Write a sequence for this structure.
């Protein structure tokens, strides 16, 4: 009888895992079949021969390499900016006392509840006034620091002991030395989580890159895939191949940094 609840729990987790894995598996199946929309049944689709031709065509057709390069440039730059700026701002909110601190931090928390679609039109008008439409500035500058990142880093730094910082000040260390030589190494778990979160958001971002770019030279990969869909007349094989290639960096990030992700998410959960 005691094993029954555990069996039901594992069964529930198996169903949840299957629901998460199925879209990825379906994408891979479609991407490895030639003209998958032409098959009449699911069984016929599975029994059809596999081919990597869709991946080869996706890489060679259109401007796929340029879209991937733009996405990489934007995502990596925004990620680096968030790691540095969120660390600095989060440290200031966690360790410093200044006038208006509570009001400023409250405004950051308030921004977290605003849906991004609300700022779509004001931000677009701002980009037009700056002359940043069809430039990398519009894709990078507005996202170099995020309220969620500031809040996350601030909460993590507040859980760190002040003793090491105080000892460094007694030895004559300045604030920049303390921030980048003492606080930064201690914040590696949470900064890793923040970096992966920001990278994934910007790598998969579609709405704002779609609004801010009208020329092919500055389109990111999600925007390019949307136009690729129209150009191929819903050729699901090529579209799923492009989506699979775009998902590859995300899977690699998780495989390489899964331990860091778990450490960052569980940091501070247990206290002595």
């Amino acid at each position: 009888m005691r094993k029954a609840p555990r069996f039901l729990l594992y069964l529930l987790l198996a169903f949840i895992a299957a629901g998460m894995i199925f879209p990825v598996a379906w994408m891979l199946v479609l991407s490895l079949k030639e003209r998958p929309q032409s098959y009449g049944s699911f069984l016929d689709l599975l029994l059809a021969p596999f081919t990597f031709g869709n991946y080869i065509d996706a890489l060679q057709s259109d401007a796929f390499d340029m879209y991937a390069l733009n996405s990489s440039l934007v995502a990596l730059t925004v990620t680096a900016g968030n790691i540095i700026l969120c660390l600095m701002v989060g440290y200031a909110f966690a360790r410093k006392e200044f006038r208006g601190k509570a009001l400023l931090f409250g405004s950051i928390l308030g921004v977290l509840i605003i849906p991004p679609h609300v700022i779509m039109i004001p931000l677009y008008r701002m980009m037009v006034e700056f002359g940043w439409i069809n430039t990398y500035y519009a894709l990078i500058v507005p996202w170099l620091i995020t309220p969620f990142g500031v809040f996350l880093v601030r909460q993590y730094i507040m859980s760190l002991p002040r003793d090491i910082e105080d000892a460094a000040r007694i030895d004559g260390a300045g604030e920049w030395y303390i921030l980048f030589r003492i606080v930064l190494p201690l914040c590696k778990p949470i900064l890793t989580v923040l970096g992966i979160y920001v990278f994934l958001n910007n790598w998969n971002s579609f709405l704002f890159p779609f609004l801010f770019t009208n020329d092919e030279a500055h389109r990111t990969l999600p925007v390019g895939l949307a136009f690729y869909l129209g150009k191929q007349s819903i050729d699901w094989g090529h579209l799923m191949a492009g989506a699979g290639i775009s998902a590859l960096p995300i899977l690699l990030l998780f495989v390489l940094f899964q331990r860091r992700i778990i450490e960052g998410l569980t940091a501070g959960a247990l206290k002595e």
Notes: The CA atoms of residues 161 and 197 lie 26 Å apart. Residues 63-231 form a domain with the MetI-like fold fold (CATH 1.10.3720.10).
